[in-house]
Amino acid sequence: MKLDTKQQVLLALYIEYQKDLPDMARVTCTALNMDYEVFCVALSKLQTEGYIDGFKAVAAENERFYEIILSGVRLTRDGIEYVENNFGIQKELTAEDKLRYVIKKCGVFGLSALKTFGVEALKALGEII
């Protein structure tokens, strides 16, 4: 399975969402090893498609993204369902079990940046790896 940029950003937001106190601003282009502009466009598309809301971007004069604000971003029900359905994540699992599952899948798919991001989120839940 190969994920496009938009799906990778959505999965990273889902990973952060699993924390007791999610901080969506931790989802960055640097954390995901992505180009800034590509990351911004992915976020814009996710909001347009109804998978997230609360994304804000301030455009520069050339209409390229200048600054993005993720602190108010939240996954919508459609965004959560999309990730869980496409990754085969059981809704009944605990947050820790969901993260373990996602980390394993990211390893299988060769998504090292997302795997690392998931491991950090799991550690934040107090899990010892």
Short note summarizing the structure:
The protein is mainly alpha-helical and 129 residues long.
Question: Could you please describe the fold and organization of this structure?
Answer:
With 129 residues, the chain is mostly helical. Helices cover 50% and strands 10% of the residues. The protein is built from 5 helices and 4 strands; from the N terminus they run ααββββααα. It has a two-stranded antiparallel sheet with strand order 1-4. A two-stranded antiparallel sheet has the order 2-3. The longest helix has 15 residues, at 95-109. The protein is globular, with a radius of gyration of 14 Å.
Can you give keywords for this protein?
129 residues, two-stranded antiparallel ribbon
